[in-house]
Each structure stands twice: as C-alpha cells, then as structure tokens.
Amino acid sequence: MDVARVRQDFPILEREVHGKPLVYLDNAATSQTPLAVIEAFDDYYRRINANIHRGLHTLADEATAAYEGSREIVRDFLNAAETREIIFTRGTTEALNLVAQSWGRANLGPGDEVLISNLEHHSNIVPWQLLAAERGFIIKVIPVDERGVLDMDAYRDLLGERTRLVAVNHVSNALGTINPVQEMARLAHEHGALILIDGAQAAPHLEIDVQAIGADFYAFSGHKVYGPTGVGVLYGRADLLEAMPPWQGGGEMIATVSFDVPTTFAAIPHKFEAGTPAVAEVIALGCAIRWIHEIGLKHISAWEERLLEHATEGVSNIEGLRILGTSPDKAGVLSFVVEGAHSQDIGLLIDQLGVAIRTGHHCAQPLLHRFGVEATCRASFAAYNTPEEVDIFVEALQRVIGMLR
Ligand code: PMP
Fold first, then answer.
1. Closest atom, ligand 1, to C-alpha of 169
2. Structural domain boundaries of the chain?
3. What separation in Å is there between the alpha carbon of 223 and the centre of ligand 1?
4. Which atom of ligand 1 is nearest the CA belonging to 232?
5. Whose CA is nearest to atom 4 of ligand 1?
6. Which fold has domain 38-294?
7. Which end of the chain has less Cβ packing within 10 Å, N or C?
C-alpha cells in the first residue's frame, strides 16, 4: 500500500498540534475523512440539496438517486442479499436501539434470555438493560479470559432453550479482540436464537459478509469508516425486518394515515426511516466506502496489522507497561496501562507532543473492571498511519512516563 499517496487524501494530517506534527492514533473513536468525502458534502450543498423521496422536481430526484445509490454501496460492502435490508440510522448506537425497541419489545418477555458478552461497548449493554427492566427478560454475560478472548465453552453452556438473542461485537473497541462471530452465529441458530452483531470496530478493518457470517442483524457507524458522523447502518434480514413493528413514527415511514382506519406502514427499509434523514451524510458515507474500495480493505487490514505489531513491539520494552488484550486475533487497537502513571495524565501529556490517543473506560466499564482497571490508554490505527508515526508515539510515551514517575 502506498501510504504516502493515501495520506494525501487527508488534509487534516497536515496540521500541527502544540507546534508538533499531528500523529492521530484515535481512529477507533473516529477516523479522519478523505477529500472525496469532504467534497461530497460540498457538491451536495452546492448542487443537489433537496428533500428525498417526495419531490417530483429534478433536485429531489437527484438527491433521492444519490441517497438510494449509497444504500446499494452499503449492501455491496456488507454483501447483504437485498438493498432493502439496509437501514440508515444515526450510527451504531441508534441501530442497536432500533433492534432493542422494535424486535426486542415485540419478542422478549419474562423467562427469555439475551446473551451479551463482557467485551461489549455500553451501546450494546444499556439498550438491553433498559428494555429488560420493562419487559422482564434476563441478560446473561459471556465471560472473557485473561487475553480478552471470549470463553466459547461458557458461551455454549449459556446458550439454551430460553436464549432468544445473542448480541455481541465483531471487534472489541477496548481491546481489539476479533470475535468468532460466524461460529457464534451457527451456535445461536442451533438453539433457535438470533444474532445481532455490533460491527462498529470491524467495518473499518475486516471484509464483512453478513450472509457468510450468518448475521441476523449487523450494525456499524459512518464516522469509523472514513465517513461522516451522524450516519450509520443497520443490516437486518428482510424477513425479520418485515415482521418487526416500526419504532419511530412520522413522515416517510407510512403507507396511509387516517383517523378512521388503522394507519399502515411503508415497506422496508422505509418503515424504519421516519422523517428526513441525513441525506448528505448518507451520500458521503457511500463516498467513504468507495474510497475504501479504491485502497482495498485487504491492503488496509494487512497494513494495520503491521502497524499494530510494530507498536506492540515498541511498547513491550517499556518497564511496567501492561497490554490489555493479547488475543492472537486482534484488529487495530493497542490498549495498555502503565504502573505509576495514570492513563489520563499520559493522554494529556502525550497530546502536548502532538500525539492523539484515547484514555478512559472506552464505554466498556464492565470489561475494564474485569481486568481490575478503571481506565486504559488506547492507540488505534488506520490506513494513513505510518511506522514512523508509531515510532514517534513510542518515543513520546517513554518521555511522558519518565516525566510522570
Ligand atoms: N460499538 C462499538 C464496538 C464501538 O466502538 C462504538 C463507538 N465507540 C459504538 C458501538 C457506538 O458507535 P456510535 O457512537 O458511532 O453510535
């Protein structure tokens, strides 16, 4: 992969922070945006801006065509069988809440069980807790071992007649662990349960085939795949989506509305897209995926694997540094704690040297508690990062730790 060429697409990488060249290693939180995506916004608001689906005029037609074109790009990206299986949301969080509030509310009750894992982001925990408090089902948690790998024996034991849903992430945002979702889907289905996969951290790094995985639902966010904030995707199997009730009411999601007879709803995917969507963001997300295809996700993954190896090696010589998440299957994330130095202090000081990493609980408090910590430092990688940047990060980290001890 020609990383110098890739970097030219990201104007933000030219900026300085505190007088130092920016080294951006917070990609698991939000990835940076290539020119093609920035220009898509500019072009949309200069030439096309209109509300979609309802206008008969040229601009409305063009906006609708571009918006629906993105749906096809996303279908292809996930290898979904049909375009109507792709629902645009505000992000992964909204996609997961959609499944909880629509499918969950209709299908879960007392005696039912939902399996989540100890690796989950809060957005795949709290929607289930909120609903469980109302509907009276039970949430069970698949444990992880010392490496941050899901305990598959425990998973098999937890699956049972009462399991209705398994909700797990594909890649952990806090540790980088890649979960064996295909095998997990097979086992869930053997027990008559559905599987919902939170792909927020997988979509930027792995080729995803929802049909090969056997995913019933799959969610990801635009801003982690070089696209904009404010847009995300829920893939759902067509037969499931068709049977699910709407979760938000409003324009666009109806067939007919009446005070005299029951209101009827639009076909999928529109049934789940009430109101005016984030049209420009959806179109820009399509551009981001096109950009990924141009570089090649395989090349991006291989490159990031090299960066992760290089960084792991670099920090492993630092005394008192403990890496959390040592699964042999990892993507893009290096999470660590340092003896005698608070994660937050490291984050603040390393920023002074131009290096952006994340510190905190990464919205995965139960996971961090499993490892007996409240916070970690997390460096995460994207297509445009370089081994030289990793070296700057390791050197800066050593300096910062020296200052703190
Ligand atoms: N799940 C995982 C694994 C994530 O990493 C994130 C974002 N940090 C989310 C869900 C939530 O995504 P968003 O904030 O874009 O809705």
1. 3
2. 3-30+297-404, 38-294
3. 10
4. 15
5. 200
6. Aspartate Aminotransferase; domain 2 (3.40.640)
7. C
